[in-house]
Design goal:
By secondary structure, the protein is an alpha/beta fold. The protein has a single domain, classed as Rossmann fold, CATH 3.40.50.720. Helices cover 40% and strands 14% of the residues. It has six helices and seven strands. A seven-stranded parallel beta sheet has the order 3-2-1-4-5-6-7, with helices on both faces. β2, α2 and β3 form a beta-alpha-beta unit. It starts with 6 loop residues before the first strand and ends with a strand. It holds the Pfam family adh_short. Belongs to the short-chain dehydrogenases/reductases (SDR) family. InterPro entries: NAD(P)-bd_dom_sf, SDR_fam.
């Protein structure tokens, strides 16, 4: 699937799976708008995208702190200054907090975890919704986590991370229903821990995968591309995964 006519916004694209998404969307030809907490982190990924041969006017880097409403608004305004529409918003940003002991995280850790994952997702979606509504193929993709599934207890993530992911799950559930009549598809992914191997590796497309292997970032990207590539009458609401 080629994406040369898609304009894509990815939050938390400065490292890890956000970087993977940026590189893979760009590799399919999409125009990408990348954010990270610092402009330097977003610029580093932009340089990697450019090194793949992507045109300089089709990859843009921005600073955005998802815990700060003003920063989210400024990010959306900066994107709106460059384009009149967004076709895909990927809500990837969410701070991970480790620790099965509720007392192990500070107040600041708890607030930042909830603000980046829960509040940040709502703020970013709200800020970019006008641009999405200008598209004839709008999709909102949210990377939730198995921690957002009711009854999930297999992660060592902190309770605050579970709370943030549960909030994302509730938000995307109602958003899917309320935006359907406007043609906006809301797609949520609930992966367990997964192997985020380097998307620039030659083995990315060819590495063998079996039922005994952990889920890979490649599989998650494939799921996203499959969902957004469907005809507009096909609303794939969520992807859930078995955990090895």
């Amino acid at each position: 699937m080629t994406l040369e006519h898609h304009r894509v916004v990815i939050t938390a694209a400065g490292r890890d799976f956000g970087r993977t998404l940026a590189l893979r969307f760009a590799a399919r030809g999409a125009e990408v708008h990348l954010s990270a907490r610092t402009l330097e982190a977003a610029e580093r990924v932009r340089e990697e995208v450019l090194a793949q041969g992507h045109a300089a006017d089709r990859v843009h880097a921005f600073a955005c702190d998802l815990t700060d409403p003003a920063s989210v608004r400024e990010f959306a305004a900066a994107v709106a200054a460059r384009t009149d529409r967004v076709d895909v918003l990927v809500n990837n940003g969410s701070r991970y907090q480790h620790g099965a002991d509720l007392l192990s995280a500070s107040d600041a850790d708890v607030v930042d975890t909830l603000a980046s994952g829960a509040t940040g997702t709502v703020l970013a979606t709200r800020a970019f919704l006008p641009l999405l509504l200008n598209s004839d193929k709008p999709d909102i993709v949210t990377m939730i986590s198995g921690c957002g599934e009711t009854g999930h207890h297999r992660s060592d993530a902190h309770d605050a991370f579970y709370a943030a992911k549960s909030a994302q799950a509730g938000f995307t559930e109602i958003l899917s229903r309320r935006l359907r009549d406007q043609g906006v598809r809301v797609i949520s992914l609930y992966p367990p821990d997964f192997d985020n191997h380097d998307p620039l590796s030659p083995a990315w497309e060819s590495a063998p995968r079996t039922a005994r292997d952990p889920l890979t970032a490649q599989s998650l990207v494939d799921c996203i591309l499959f969902a957004i590539g469907q005809p507009r009458d096909c609303f794939i609401k969520s992807f859930h995964f078995e955990q090895v």
